[in-house]
Specification:
The chain is built from three helices and five strands, in the order E-E-E-H-E-H-E-H. With 108 residues, it is of the alpha/beta class. The chain has a single domain (5-92), classed as Dinitrogenase iron-molybdenum cofactor biosynthesis domain (Nucleotidyltransferase, domain 5), CATH 3.30.420. It has a five-stranded mixed β-sheet, sandwiched between helices. Helix 1 (53-63) runs parallel beside helix 2 (76-85). The relative contact order is 0.25.
């Protein structure tokens, strides 16, 4: 059984929401299992902090067991924090649900 959990940094809580251009300060994280089932929608508690968002965001994702995070852009600190936590990252843009289906190699 594949225990991979994907997180998509999102501007909103729906599959139609655009992927956020800020990985650490995304308003939401949509958490999916390896089959593409939406498991959880997390409101990001550090989306509006001025400093130190990356470590807290990564801690939140790591606590959920996320193994790969998708966002439009990643800052250097976020990349470093993700690597330290053993979480992979991928840059992508578009609707969150579409991006995940593409990542999983599925057609619309």
């Amino acid at each position: 059984m594949d225990n991979t959990l994907y997180a998509v940094a999102s501007e909103g809580a729906s599959l139609e929401s655009p992927v956020s251009d800020q990985a650490a300060r995304a308003p939401c994280y949509l958490i999916f299992d390896a089959s593409g089932h939406l498991m959880e929608t997390l409101v990001n508690p550090v989306s509006e902090v001025s400093r130190g968002a990356a470590p807290e965001a990564v801690e939140l994702l790591a606590a959920r067991g996320v193994t790969l995070l998708v966002a439009k852009r990643f800052g250097k600190k976020m990349i470093s924090e993700l690597a330290s936590a053993g979480i992979l990252h991928k840059e992508s843009e578009g609707e969150a649900g579409h991006v995940l289906r593409t990542l999983l190699g599925r057609k619309e």
